[in-house]
Design brief:
By secondary structure, the chain is mainly alpha-helical. Helix content is 51%, strand content 6%. The strands form four sheets. A three-stranded antiparallel beta sheet has the order 7-8-9, with no helix packed on it. Strands 1-2 form a two-stranded antiparallel ribbon. A hairpin with a 5-residue loop joins β3 and β4 (25-27).
Length: 471
């Protein structure tokens, strides 16, 4: 029913339910005529009463897409089923989705569908500000998903969500704080944290991880002030002894965050110059045994088997090249290129020649049907992600991808460390940095850790094609 084909008797594209004398498929009407059966026994033409297309009918002799068209109008339209110009691109994308039955199920069950129906019924535009006001409600996940859908279909303008969320989060954090804490932390957040965030965003370098680090800076400033208050002290009383006591059991994340705050208070002469000793960076400690590493890599590179394709491809990129999840989740099909040598993937600035099995897995991943209803955006140009999220017009989050990998037995951090130490023992830091998206400082640290001396290599290496470098 999902795959109509030309009938061998009438030639029309129909659902084939029988066979002629030669064994070729025939439609219901021709099969009834050929056998002389009673035509009233069954409706075997499978033609939609609305559009006339043959296929798997959904309800009342109508196909799923025609039913979906009516239900989207009911959901988003006014009493006359007229949809507002702002939501019309969103409605068109729902109706044109690759899997209309999945959209119908989403309309029945999704909190995001109920939310957009409520917003549409008000008759007022759905803006980012309107959605932001709902973020503190129990329906936060529904708000997030609806925002992604509206952006994907051009019903809302895109925005850098990690940065846009930071200032409302700050307001929510400060609302219950003592006035003296607010007077200190708000200017610190505005002039240090948010200013740095906007500067990074203007260069296209602000991510969800950046926002988490900025939140930690603000959060630890509040923690320090609360710690002082518990001891009946204020920021004016802060001494090196107090700070040493506060930092005694602190992890590196707190040290970095508190250092940013105390540097700001010292610059404004609120506190004296205070020192937070930098801990010597620990060498990597999480690795997996070489045999286990190779076993995981073999499992990922097998082109068949039960492991999901996205897990195989992402796992291979980590196990082979030590690529961070923050880079993997943003990879697009535009980063792929091919020539007579094979398939290349530009993980960073230089294309890397993929092993044949991994190249085949990447092709299978691209061809895989969407796990959701396959929303098609209305924009003329579309970014196709190797690891689509929900909706598939946005990439999967690094956290979600990491969870999927760990669920299938791939320890992300340990696997990445094992791959990088192997690369550092074979390649110079400059090559590792160019190929796999590490900074030169980080690549050098791995090379030093692997105790690799590449002076002889750099002096003797042959000239290579700058367009394609193999790892």
């Amino acid at each position: 029913m999902n795959n109509p084909r030309p009938c061998s008797i009438c030639g029309n594209s129909r659902v084939l339910v029988g066979r002629d004398e030669g064994g070729a498929g025939t439609c219901g009407g021709c099969a009834i005529q050929a056998t002389g059966a009673n035509a009233s026994r069954a409706n075997l033409d499978y033609l939609c009463d609305s559009c006339g297309e043959a296929g798997d009918l959904y309800a009342a002799h109508r196909c799923a897409r025609c039913v979906l068209t009516d239900r989207v109008s009911d959901l988003l339209g006014d009493e006359n089923a007229v949809i507002s110009p702002q939501l019309l691109p969103f409605a068109d994308a729902l109706v044109a989705a690759a899997a209309p039955r999945n959209v119908l199920a989403w309309l029945r069950r999704s909190g995001s569908a109920r939310l957009v129906a409520e917003l549409a019924s008000t008759g007022t535009p759905v803006t980012h500000e309107v959605l932001d006001q709902l973020l503190q409600s129990p329906r936060m996940a529904a708000v997030d998903y609806l925002r992604k859908l509206l952006i994907a279909t051009n019903a809302l303008p895109d925005r850098l969500e990690p940065l846009a969320r930071l200032e409302p989060w700050l307001d929510a954090q400060l609302v219950d704080q003592p006035a003296e804490h607010q007077r200190l932390v708000r200017p610190f957040a505005q002039w240090v944290v948010l200013r740095k965030a906007r500067r990074a965003a203007s260069r296209g370098r602000y991510t969800g991880g950046s926002a988490n680090a900025d939140r930690e800076d603000i959060r630890q400033a509040l923690v320090l002030l609360s710690w002082l208050s518990e001891r009946h002290l204020t920021i004016d009383d802060l001494t090196q002894t107090h700070l040493d006591e506060f930092m005694a059991l602190a992890r590196s994340k707190r040290r970095r965050a508190v250092r940013a705050f105390t540097a700001w208070t010292a610059a404004r002469r609120i506190t004296p110059e205070l020192i937070i000793a930098r801990r010597r960076d620990d060498t990597p400690s999480r690795f997996i045994a070489e045999e286990h590493h190779l076993d995981l890599l073999r499992r990922c590179l097998i082109t068949s088997g039960p492991t999901p394709l996205d897990v195989k491809v992402a796992g291979s990129l980590i196990l082979l090249y030590g690529v961070r999840l923050s880079k993997i989740h943003q990879l697009t099909t535009a980063r792929l290129s091919r020539d007579d040598r094979g398939t290349y993937l530009a993980i960073d600035s230089v294309p890397v020649l993929l092993p044949p099995n991994l190249a085949q897995l990447v092709d299978q991943l691209i061809a895989e049907p969407p796990r959701t209803f396959g929303l098609r955006p209305t924009a003329p140009a579309m970014t196709t992600y190797l690891f689509p999220g929900r909706p598939p017009t946005r990439p999967i989050s690094p956290a979600s991808l990491g969870t999927r990998l760990r669920r299938h037995g791939i320890p992300v951090g340990a696997a990445r460390n094992t791959a990088l130490i192997a690369l550092a023992a074979e390649l110079p830091a400059a090559v590792i940095a160019d190929l796999f998206g590490l900074t030169y400082k980080t690549a050098s640290a791995w090379s030093n850790y692997a105790q690799a001396d590449w002076t002889a290599y750099l002096n003797s290496r042959p000239t290579t094609d700058p367009q394609h470098q193999d790892p």
